[in-house]
Amino acid sequence: MAEIVNLRRVRKAKARHAKAVVAQANRAEHGVSKSAHELAKKRAEIEARDVEGRKLDKDR
Fold first, then answer.
1. Is 27 within a domain?
2. What pTM was estimated for this model as a whole?
3. FRET partner for 15 with CA separation of 20 to 30 A, picked from 8, 31, 41, 52?
4. Res 9: pLDDT
5. Does the residue 59 lie in any domain?
């Protein structure tokens, strides 16, 4: 005898899989690697710290 299948679940699972494939392709095409993202964050922190250190005091 054949296995009973809920067609709604199969349809939704197929749609989720299709979306996951498209999302993976978009991440590969448009995404930034984790190491590049962390490097940019560290550089921004260093730059902000340097700018803060060079500010003149308003009390003078």
1. yes
2. 0.48
3. 31
4. 96
5. no
Give the per-residue pLDDT at 59: 66
In a domain, 20, yes or no: yes
Report yes or no on 2 lying in a domain. Answer: no
Q: For 1-60, where are the alpha helices, taking DSSP H only?
A: 7-30, 34-54
Length of the chain: 60
When divided into structural domains, the chain yields a total of 1
Q: Which domain holds residue 29?
A: 7-54
Rounded-to-integer distance, Cα 23 and Cα 29, Å: 10
Give pLDDT tens digits for 14-57: 999 999 999 999 988 888 888 998 999 999 999 999 998 888 87
